[in-house]
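Support request, priority: normal
Reporter: lab tech (M.K.)
Component: structure prediction queue

Hi team, I submitted a job for J domain-containing protein from Phaeocystis antarctica yesterday, and the status page still shows it as pending. I've pasted the exact input below so you can check whether something in the sequence is tripping the parser. The sequence length should be 330 residues. Please let me know if I need to resubmit or if it's stuck on your end.
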Amino acid sequence: MLSSLPLVAACLCVTVSSIHAVAISTRPYSTAALRPRPAVARCLPPVAYQSGGSDVDPYKTLGVERDASTAEIKKAFRDKALSAHPDKNPDLDREEAQARFSGIGDAYEILKSPEKRKEYDTYGRVGTAASRGQGGYESQEEMFNEFMRRYYGQQQEMEERPPPPKPFPQPEMEAWIRADPATVEAASRACGFSTEKDEIRATFAGKLGTVSAVDARDRSVKLLVMVSPGRAAEVWYPVDALWDPRLVKAGFEVTVCADAEAMGRAARAAGISTEKDEIRASFAGKRGTVLLADNNDQTAKVRVTMQPAVDDKPAEVSLCWFPIAALEPA
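Reply from support: The job had stalled in the queue. We restarted it manually and it finished. Here are the results:
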């Protein structure tokens, strides 16, 4: 009996070894270790673009098409950020509102950068979480505040900027009649006016009137002109016989009326004495630049060019006050 024990032990060893071998041979074989990883996995860490803790599409987040322009993306971000800012959503949980707002900021950071946008379009992800950042901003809040500061700064500047002036002439606008009757007559012929009322039109040369009607068909203007206190006349003029009083300000280039007599009449109407009539008459037909305009008495200080600059010789200029009625746009 004892002599058979070694044999039994040997059989048991063989049996256990066989069972162990069978167990090993029946384990499922995996080829994962032998399967090569895609090349992109070696280039980009497997981190998808995220916002608020979940994968999102930046195009869907901002509500723009994949071919959206930079301007469209910027406008979409502005509109979304305005509506999603936590301060605009007091009914939402603060963390939820912040997550929604941050997601909009993340989407904008991707799409505003040509490099990041191309990377997302190619791989569906952008870099690592650490590399996304906010373009130099400490937080999404700071990025939003800076964006809105610039946006509202531009809006405020646009609001403060005066609207463009209305085109001249229009009803109820003031209009200067050119001071030289010959200029008024020539404009009348060019406009197709008959000679019937030339004398009346010449009577009001150099006066300030108010537009009562405009006929765009023949570019004519009906002007209400004061004849005397309590009396006014309505006369049709060609638009080229009139000019816009709003133009008279510092830097405005003018031509002094070529008719010295008309200039004298305009000076009397403006309350200017005869003291310097001779000097003003010497400037008739010359060009100048308005330095100062006084709309209270309808006068302007003008720097008149007597002789233009030639080679090294400087221009000769002189200063003189004129009635605005004796000036015309150069």
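The chain has three domains: 39-159, 174-244, 248-329. The first strand starts at residue 50 and ends at 51. Let us know if anything else looks off. Ticket resolved.
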